[in-house]
């Protein structure tokens, strides 16, 4: 069994790109990682990692050894997961990164239902819009909205939401109701991430640049500002359901709303994925398959 000593640490360094990041992944000290990798190199008689002051890279022998070790670790994980699957008793911690009102209002309650089905599973949701490092942060998957650019990640479509423009009755009484998107240029607007709003005009998507009189990267805060009459908001329709039902907001420009506001489940492209993550992803996809 001594031949396995340092293997997990070596693989963690290879995948995360450094000793410090590997230590965070394995929840241990950097010195422990360095010591274990050094002992592994001494036993194998090969330099596995080329160390410089700025970065750490696999040597040719290291790249070969990493592939072999990764297969062994993957096989071990899969054997353990197979046992868990047979017992169907999920354990450990499912770590999810999410952002936005949709995640707070709909994703979190869905995961609460999933948690009740698996009482021995811990769930950790980080509501943060920053780009996550799936390895260093230990994130199983993320919920993201809009266009995705990182081709190294797997993205599965969760739900597409139509957009909706709204304003408070008080705002419309004071400033009038626009009947075309171009008229928004002379209106007060409540913004979140962009001042370019896309509308369906004459069968094509056209952008309209609007002026911000209140801006926040939090959709719930923008919603509240809109309810208080600070301007017109344009967000996914699900954001406004309760406010419209309570007559706090009024839909406008209905003939021009665009579609395609898509939420995605995003995760790292890797051979092994914990069973808890697989089942949670499939649960969410099924839960939102007929979502309106």
Automatic annotation (TrEMBL):
SUPFAM superfamilies: Periplasmic binding protein-like II, Winged helix' DNA-binding domain
Matches recorded under PANTHER family: HTH-TYPE TRANSCRIPTIONAL REGULATOR, TRANSCRIPTIONAL REGULATOR-RELATED
Species: Pseudoalteromonas aurantia
Keywords: DNA-binding, Transcription, Transcription regulation
Residues covered by the HTH lysR-type domain: 10-59
UniProt similarity note: Belongs to the LysR transcriptional regulatory family.
Keyword field contains Nucleotide-binding: no
Protein name as catalogued: LysR family transcriptional regulator
CDD domains: PBP2_CrgA_like (cd08422)
């Amino acid at each position: 069994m001594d031949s396995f000593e340092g293997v997990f640490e070596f693989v963690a360094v290879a995948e995360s790109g450094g000793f410090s990041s590997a230590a965070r992944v394995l929840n241990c000290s950097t010195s422990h990682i360095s010591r274990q990798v050094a002992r592994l190199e001494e036993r194998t008689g090969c330099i596995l990692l080329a160390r410089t002051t700025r970065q750490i890279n696999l040597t040719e022998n290291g790249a070969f050894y990493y592939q072999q070790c990764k297969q062994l670790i993957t096989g071990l994980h899969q054997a353990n997961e197979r046992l868990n699957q047979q017992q169907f008793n999920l354990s450990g911690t499912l770590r999810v990164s999410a952002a936005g009102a949709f995640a707070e209002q709909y994703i979190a309650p869905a995961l609460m239902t999933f948690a009740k089905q698996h009482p021995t599973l811990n769930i950790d949701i980080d509501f943060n819009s920053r780009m996550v490092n799936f390895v260093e942060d230990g994130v199983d998957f993320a919920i993201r909205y809009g266009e995705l650019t990182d081709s190294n990640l797997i993205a599965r479509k969760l739900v597409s939401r139509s957009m909706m423009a709204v304003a408070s009755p008080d705002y419309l009484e004071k400033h009038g109701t626009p009947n075309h998107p171009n008229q928004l240029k002379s209106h007060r607007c409540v913004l979140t991430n962009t001042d370019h709003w896309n509308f369906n005009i004459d069968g094509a998507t056209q952008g309209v640049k609007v002026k911000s009189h209140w801006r926040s990267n939090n959709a719930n805060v923008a919603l509240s500002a809109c309810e208080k009459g600070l301007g017109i908001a344009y967000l996914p329709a699900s954001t406004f359901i309760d406010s419209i039902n309570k007559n706090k907001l009024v839909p406008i420009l209905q003939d021009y709303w665009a579609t395609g506001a898509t939420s995605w489940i995003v995760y790292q492209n890797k051979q092994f994925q914990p069973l808890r993550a697989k089942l949670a992803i499939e649960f969410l996809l099924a839960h939102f398959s007929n979502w309106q």
